[in-house]
Design brief:
CATH topology of the largest domain: Fructose-1,6-Bisphosphatase, Chain A, domain 1
Helix content: 25-40%
CATH architecture of the largest domain: 2-Layer Sandwich
Number of domains: 2
Bound molecules: D-MYO-inositol-1-phosphate, calcium ion
Structural class: alpha+beta
Strand content: 15-25%
CATH superfamily of the largest domain: Fructose-1,6-Bisphosphatase, subunit A, domain 1
Number of helices: 7
Largest sheet: 7 strands, mixed
Shape: globular
Distance between the termini: 53 Å
Length: about 280
């Protein structure tokens, strides 16, 4: 079934990407799921197209899709779908967004596809068979130190005040070449997989944000855990992905931030950055 699953995932992601592109050229009508949690017609149209195709090809498979149109299934096969990752970017006309489709068999990620329709970049991964960008095999970067790395992170659109990430953002910015906040966790993970970013972390992501991207990073030779180093599963609260080489340093930096929060230091001091920048 492996090949068929990948083929259907790819053609489905491309079709959904086409819908997003056509919607991107039109004025956007935004609705709100929460204070800053946006949803547009593009999210809904893309999801309807994806779920419709998956259901036609695999009527017995479960589908978990962000906007809620999924279905229960046979208990062994599960599609995990983000029809538009980067809705806020999309709604503001910032061309950084993607379709993300992951597939699990017996609880293990086996296929992941992320499609960025503006750049036409198609990221694919199958378990044990590597990761690809437009059919060319990709690997994580070989950057060996946090101090020379380029990182990415994101901030959730719900429960923002309770998210600790601003502390991490400050600290990691001072310890690295910089931290990008591009607004699409799926593309952030795909960028770790192809070596553009050396590491990525976020708190409170949903399974549909990460399912495909996590497989891409692992198949490209990288690591995805939590800050304690335990194996990451879609839906876990902490996501820490890297090229593997800087993973221990990222974890240590995270532990330092935690300690600073416990110590009541509102934000890390400049002098805590290596090199005292
Ligand atoms: C969001 C994006 C963003 C991340 C948020 C997600 P959405 O997904 O992945 O980068 O920081 O936590 O909710 O809502 O655009 O599908
Ligand atoms: Ca998302
Ligand atoms: Ca989404």
């Amino acid at each position: 079934m492996g090949n068929q699953v990948l083929e259907v995932a790819v053609e489905t992601a491309r079709a959904a990407g086409g819908i997003l592109l056509s919607e991107f050229d039109r004025p956007v009508t935004i609705s709100y799921k929460g204070e800053v949690d946006l949803v547009t017609q593009a999210d809904r149209r893309s999801e309807a197209a994806i779920v419709g195709r998956l259901r036609t090809h695999f009527p017995k498979h479960a589908i978990v899709a962000e906007e809620g149109s999924g279905q229960k299934g046979d208990g062994r096969h599960r599609w995990i779908v983000d029809p538009l990752d980067g809705t806020t970017n999309f709604a503001h006309g910032y061309p950084c967004f993607a379709v993300s489709i992951g597939f699990e068999e017996d609880g293990e990620l086996v296929v992941g596809v992320i499609y960025q329709p503006i750049t036409k970049e198609l990221f694919t991964a199958s378990r044990g068979e590597g990761a690809y960008l437009n059919e060319k095999q990709i690997r994580v970067s070989s950057i060996a130190h946090l101090s020379t790395s380029l990182l990415a992170t994101g901030f959730p659109s719900t429960k923002r005040a309770r998210n600790p990430n601003i502390h991490y953002y400050w600290n990691f910015t001072l310890r690295s070449h910089g931290v990008r906040r591009d607004g699409s966790a799926a593309l952030d993970l795909a960028s770790v997989a192809c070596g553009r970013f050396d590491g990525f972390w976020e708190f409170g992501l949903h399974p549909w944000d990460t399912a495909a991207g996590v497989l891409l990073v692992r198949e490209a030779g990288g690591l995805v855990t939590n800050f304690s180093g335990q194996h990451y599963r879609p839906g876990d609260y902490e996501t820490l992905a890297s090229n593997g080489h800087i993973h221990a340093e990222l974890r240590q930096a995270g532990a330092d931030v935690q300690q600073q929060i416990v110590d009541g230091l509102e934000l890390p001091q400049k002098s805590s950055a290596p090199g005292g920048e």
